Amino acid sequence: MLKSPPQASSPRSAASPAPGASEVFQLLRDGRPRTRAELAQLTGLARSTVASRVDTLMTLGLVAPDGGAASTGGRPPSLFALNPGARVVVGADIGATHARAILADLSGRELAEEHRALAIGEGPDAVLGWLVGTVDTLLARGNRPPAELAAIGIGLPGPVEHETGRPINPPIMPGWDRFDVPAFVRTRFDVPVLVDNDVNIMALGERGFHWPEITELMFVKVATGIGAGIISGGTLQRGAQGTAGDLGHVRVPHADEIPCRCGNTGCLEALAAAPALVRTLSEHATGELATSQDVIDLVRSGDARAVQVIRQAGRDIGDVLATCVNLVNPSVIVIGGSLAQAGEHLLAGIREVVYRRSLPLATEHLRVAPSVAGERAGVLGAAVLAIDHVLSPEAIEAACAALSTG
């Protein structure tokens, strides 16, 4: 279940009923029940103000009574907590050849799931057509009316302009360039639609469900491409144009002559991503190799050449990550993506170089760990993306303002 850290409160506004209700809500968002007195103590607000804000949040359905606290004499005080069932969200992870979507409540608890093989190359009409149909299916299976759907989060396997939700020059997504994904989905469901690239949502999913107390985390996806989702100060860092974490096109000195699909030479992706390893191993393999799974199968079978190649890929990735460690100083580096299934050989190569090349202080408590969420990291992160939007201070204040004019 998603464990959300407390978020910063928004500025108080005198225009809405129980102004600043989000300040109280963010304290209840972690699911821990609290009394009005506890909330007053934590916020420094008068009990009457806290009571008014709790009433507003209960009217919105976001907060509900949670039994009673232990009595110190007289009537026990009431407890209040997040009401995770008040709304639902859909998270969708759309990959190069697959699509997966879940229905979740506001705590991240999964209520229903759908997945199928689906090629992103079929184009946005076909892929998003499947998605909107699947949202209907998920709502029906979860026995939730469309009116309770609060947001939809989507991950795509290419660069995304997060502010607009439009893919920008995606290399493996023909027909998707600058396609208005949110507008397409909202023709069927008039709710916020949040779109990001796959590695960013994987970082959100991994952290939200498995490393909730970690504020400095890098999620590195090693598959057909190589990229990273960077969480710093508890916030996903997208960069000015949404391209932060594009490790695959960082230059690796000893790969100068190797061409990359981006048009340059010497990129990490051209040296250590799945297609590069398939090419390298195909030169010596007796059978035909075509996919990352073929590489993984060779490694798992104990093939010495495959083990050597995957270990060296780890070292090459480690070369780039060592610079990242010195720059952003993460506490945890999580390795995911299809090639992470090769096990400790890839991680051993990464650790070998990262710990040798990074500053000692930066690696003193650094953990390099395999993904816990695995192939579900993306769909979980898409749900987190939607939930974080629905429960953000800005969204709570907007709901309170709408309540006053409704």
List keywords for this structure.
single chain, 406 residues, alpha/beta, Arc Repressor Mutant, subunit A, Nucleotidyltransferase, domain 5, 3 domains, 5-stranded mixed sheet
Give a written overview of the molecule.
The structure is a single chain. The chain is of the alpha/beta class and 406 residues long. The chain contains 14 helices and 15 strands. The protein has helices at residues 21-28, 36-43, 47-60, 124-141, 181-186, 198-210, 268-272, 274-282, 292-300, 304-328, 344-357, 360-363, 377-390, 393-405; strands at residues 34-35, 63-68, 78-82, 88-94, 98-105, 110-117, 149-156, 160-161, 166-167, 193-197, 217-222, 226-232, 235-237, 332-336, 367-370. The strands form four sheets. It has a five-stranded mixed beta sheet, with helices on both faces. A five-stranded mixed beta sheet has the order 13-12-11-14-15, sandwiched between helices. A three-stranded antiparallel beta sheet has the order 1-3-2. Strand 4 and strand 5 (98-105) form a beta hairpin. Helix 6 crosses helix 13 (377-390). The chain is globular. The two termini are 33 Å apart.
H/E element order = HEHHEEEEEHEEEHEHEEEHHHHEHHEHH
CATH architectural category of the largest domain:
2-Layer Sandwich
**Share of residues in strands:** 15-25%
Number of helices: 14
Number of domains: 3
* Biggest β-sheet: strands ordered side by side in the sheet: 6-5-4-7-10
User: For the record, what CATH class of the largest domain applies?
Assistant: Alpha Beta
The Cα radius of gyration reads: 23 Å
Q: What is the H level of CATH, i.e. the homologous superfamily of the largest domain?
A: ATPase, nucleotide binding domain
Mean pLDDT across all amino acids: 90
Main beta sheet strand tally, sense and closure: 5 strands, mixed
State the end-to-end CA separation.
33 Å
Relative helix content:
25-40%
How many beta-strand segments? 15
What is the third-level CATH name, the topology of the largest domain? Nucleotidyltransferase, domain 5
Q: Unreliable stretches, pLDDT < 50, 5 or more residues?
A: 6-18, 69-73
Q: Structural class, from helix and strand content?
A: alpha/beta
Principal-axis shape equals globular
